[in-house]
Amino acid sequence: MEQDSPKGREMSEQRRVQRQPCRLDARIFIPQLSAPVRCTITDISTLGAFVQPHTRRSVPASFDLSIGGSSSPRACRIARREAHGFGVEFLDPVRHEVEDLLIEHAFKEEMVFDALYPSLSGELTATKMRLRHTTDAIMELIERRSAVSWQHTSAA
Predict the structure, then answer these.
(1) Angle, vertex CA 143, rays to CA 141 and CA 149, nearest 5
(2) Which among 91, 118, 88, 114 has a CA at the least distance from the CA of 103?
(3) d(C-alpha 122, C-alpha 22), whole Å
(4) pLDDT digits (tens, 9 = 90+) for 9-57
(5) In terms of CB atoms within 10 Å, which of 10, 62, 76, 110 comes out highest?
(6) How many CB atoms are located within 10 Å of the residue 113 CB?
(7) Smallest Cα–Cα separation from 27: which of 80, 79, 63?
(8) d(CA 7, CA 115)
């Protein structure tokens, strides 16, 4: 697996979110090809994964990746290539969607107040700090839940 190599350990230390080891079947969808490229994901997080294609076919820098039996592919970009595969970053903006939902449903009035009476010092307002902390907590919960489900999936 990727983390067993010196380069894998080095990348692991640089990640914002630790990946979970797994063995998940996946498919790479490339617009020019009619059939998907089969592959295996060897580690994964909410932000990215390490992908090992089952073929030597060239894979472009950006593509869609369907994990397991999912019919909803995720947009990806290759972050680095290695001899036996490549690391990808998921491009879906989950964090921004969570923030937008929180603003719409929980912080709307406070954000309007902040807009009407901006901080003179240019610093983060208490509302924006609470929004950031709440978003971080929700993203951590998503990451923990996803790690548990990936561990159960890879054990099956």
Answers:
(1) 105
(2) 114
(3) 44
(4) 455 556 667 888 999 999 999 988 889 999 999 999 878 899 999 998 8
(5) 76
(6) 12
(7) 63
(8) 46
Can you list the positions of beta strands (E) in 12-154? Answer: 20-29, 37-44, 48-53, 62-67, 74-82, 85-90
**For the chain, how many residues are written?**
156
- Does residue 96 carry a pLDDT above 70? no
Domain ranges of the chain: 2-90, 94-155
CA-to-CA distance for 141 and 72, rounded, in angstroms?
Answer: 22
- Compute the distance between CA of residue 19 and CA of residue 42 in angstroms, rounded to an integer: 10
pLDDT higher than threshold 70 for residue 145? no
Q: Is 21 helix (H, G, I), strand (E, B) or coil?
A: strand
Rg (CA), the chain: 19
Kindly report, residue by residue over 57-90, the tens digit of the pLDDT. Answer: 889 999 999 998 887 788 899 999 999 999 998 8
The structure's pTM equals: 0.57
Distance (Å, rounded) from C-alpha 25 to C-alpha 32?
A: 22
Collapsing DSSP to helix, strand or coil, 54 comes out as: coil
